[in-house]
Amino acid sequence: MALRHAVLAALLDGEFSGYELAKIFAVGVANFWYAAPQQLYAELTKLESDGLIAGREVVQQGRPSKRVFTVTEAGRGELAAFAGAPPKPLLMRADLMVRVHAIDVLGPIPVIAQLHEQAREAEAKLELFERMLAHLRGDLDEEMFLRRGDRIGPYLSGLAGCRFERMLRDWCLHAAQTPSNHVQDQDRVMSRGVV
Question: Of 8, 53, 147, 166, which is most buried, counting CB atoms within 10 Å of its CB?
Fold first, then answer.
């Protein structure tokens, strides 16, 4: 997947400025695609140049004008072609996983601190996703929303983000506890004179 597809998918929900799109990416899209605001602005320029989105100037009272974007028919066609293509395998690249993998040699103290920090970040993201899901559902429970809701795609991707952040938080807390337990067990064995 290219950034263009994530931007096109985000713009299906309406007309947004680059600033608004950056906020959408920070909450709703970040669980499957990260992009810095500068990358988003550059991609918007490319998408407009390629005719996949259309931009227009909006004059605001007492504030600078802003440019907002919508998906064109060509953009919808690009998304349809992307949706019909075979998916690439899911990949995970995370510095923290490399540190955990090497914890036996690096020592647990710095890695445990990073695991706790990652757990706090996952908890904060989980809360954001849960608020987003509640907002999307409105007065409906999840089952009813998934049967009758207008836009279940953002809900389902948000639900995946929610489940991922919950799993990550729980794994980080478990992983942070494991080296401490391991060291305590080794100390007990050593104190008994068993090697």
Answer: 53
